[in-house]
Structure formats: structure tokens, C-alpha cells
Amino acid sequence: KMRISNIEFDFGSERLTGKGKDILDRVYSILKKYRGYDITVEGHTDDIGKDDLNLELSERRAKSVMNYLIDKGMDEGRIRFMGMGETVPLYPNTTDENRRRNRRVEFLLIKRTD
Description:
Blueprint: E1 2-4, H1 18-31, E2 37-44, H2 51-72, E3 79-85, H3 96-102, E4 104-111
Parallel strand pairs: 2-3
Antiparallel strand pairs: 1-4, 2-4
């Protein structure tokens, strides 16, 4: 599992910032080395806002990350996305810093058995 908290998006949007794209370029070069694995992109949010909106935003962001990696050359048969909303925080959502750290994208690598 790769956990990345500093992939940035425009506020309330799935649009990646330039910094977010730079980070994903590095992630792409790492993921290329793991061709025997399928990848699930998980989007996570903090607890600010309504649960259903956070779930939808996390899905859109995870899909945006997946599409960016596919556009870079990732085999789309190896990658999928899912939004987790605010359901799996790493830290209590009690401070701005903890909320920032909970807004993240995680990459799950699943070894293929074929």
C-alpha cells in the first residue's frame, strides 16, 4: 500500500494541481516497476461537509488520479478506483493538520495470481 497525502486538487474539485501532477509522475514511474500487480486507487477525505458529498468527491478524485495515470501510459486493465469518503481516517479529524493528512490518495497493489 502506498499512502500519499500531498497530491493536491483544486478546492472542492477533482482537478489536479500542477504539484499533484508532479507527484503522480513520480508515482507512475514507481508503479511501472510492479507490472505483476493490479492497482486500486482509493480517494479519502476529511470530515468537513456532508458524508454523501465527501464520498462523491473522493470518488471523483480517485477517478481523476486513475485517468491521469492511464493517460501517462498505465494499462487501464490493471487499474481501478474507489472513493472512501471520510470513512477511514488515519487521524482524528480534530485539527487542521489531521484533516489535511486525512485528505489523501492511497494505492493498493494486488499481486496477480495468473
